[in-house]
Amino acid sequence: MSVLTREQMQALGEKIVGLSRAERIQVNLNSNDTGNTRFAANQMSTSGSVSNTGVGIQSWYGARHAVVTTNNLADDALEAAVRRSEQIAQLAPEDPEDMPLLGPQEYATVNSYVEVTANLDPAARARAAMTALDVTRKSEDLEAAGFIVTGAVATAIANSAGLFAYHRNTFANYTLTVRTRDGTGSGWAGADDPDWTNLSFEQVSERAISKARRSANPRAIEPGRYTVILEPQAVGDLVQLMLFAAQARAADEGRSPFVKEGGGNKIGEKILDERVTVISDPTDPQLRAQPFDGEGMPLGRQVWIEDGVLQQLIYSRFWAQKQGKEPTGGPTSIKMAGGTASVDELVRGTERGVLVTRLWYLRQVDPRTILYTGLTRDGTFLIENGEISQPLMNFRFNESPLFMLNNLETLGRAERLAGTEAGGNIVMPALKVRDFNFTSLSEAV
Predict the structure, then answer these.
(1) Strand runs labelled E in 12-90
(2) pLDDT tens string 279-316
(3) What's the CA gap between 213 and 165, in Å, rounded?
(4) How far apart, in whole angstroms, are the C-alpha atoms of residue 308 and residue 275?
(5) Domains and their CATH numbers in the chain
(6) What is the mean predicted confidence (pLDDT) over 170-174?
(7) How far is Cα 257 from Cα 368, in angstroms, rounded to an integer?
(8) How far apart are CA 337 and CA 376, in angstroms?
């Protein structure tokens, strides 16, 4: 099974809209066809595939609305789902923030569908996995566990106001963890791209294996504030939290780090180092994301922070109407502009510091400052005199991206991430920052 085409999605959406007896109806469609290969303990464990088309049907009566979902596309099942959404909508309380449906919109063209990725077979994934397994199986000290997932997704929205939106994309994602058999060392690496042929599986495997070996038998150093080099994966985990917190409503209501003293928000104010620029742009060649949000709002290039200055916040349709602003839609991507330095170059320019591969288990401490706690993981190292000198025990940290990006020393090259705790379509640079706050040690690898 392949994902549904624009014509198939439009026909399905129109069919469901035509079944409606409600005052308004919106149909959200998702068609996906994915394949995966998993391995652990140096052994292939699973190879599978999933094909599915899901339908979300939302019906309205006045400001009352309700959603019913199904993946049964038979005519009687679709009609039953429509009727059910209507029944529940009539029982629902009125939504004081209900907005009218969007009519027809214009969307940017984003080419993120690659045939070779969509048509990939299990044998190709197995060969990619062997770039790690060929090495770890022959070694006496390493065990590998990884996940390779590829496929295609098509998303569409149709409603009774005449809107139709369609986007399809492919994805190829490889994440690998390699550990030493004595349990003291762990290395991680990953890569992601719409085009399978752009992934260098050998390089990903080599990085994870090298980090595992180098991180064995770590030593403890005192927690405290250190100069830190964060690889792009670690940067993404923290920086994306700024966008999650950038809701205009929260700022206007005094519940946000972007609240202005005396009232209002900080749009137009310098809040970060002047080298920091953060955007969302579905058409960016490194991002290639969906050009509309879940309501069908068009998404183009949006600059959130430019040269350290807060340029805009995220306005929902309801809050934009209330405040007399233009809605922004919900961004589907985030990118922080980078410099030219590699991680190795950042290390060579550091007299003493800590190199962090990635972060894990981030949890909020203070929403007013975007302060989070979490752990380093899978490769933490001491830097001395421009070289990695020792593997280190992992740290717990308390840090905010706002603090971190005001302590910026050097920007590295920006690269597409293999995903974070919150999702994908993220491009981040490596960073060298000062005074990163490590609060305690962790014995976990």
Answers:
(1) 24-40, 43-61, 64-70
(2) 999 999 999 999 999 999 999 999 999 999 999 999 99
(3) 49
(4) 6
(5) 6-213 (3.30.2290.10), 218-445 (no CATH)
(6) 97
(7) 5
(8) 24
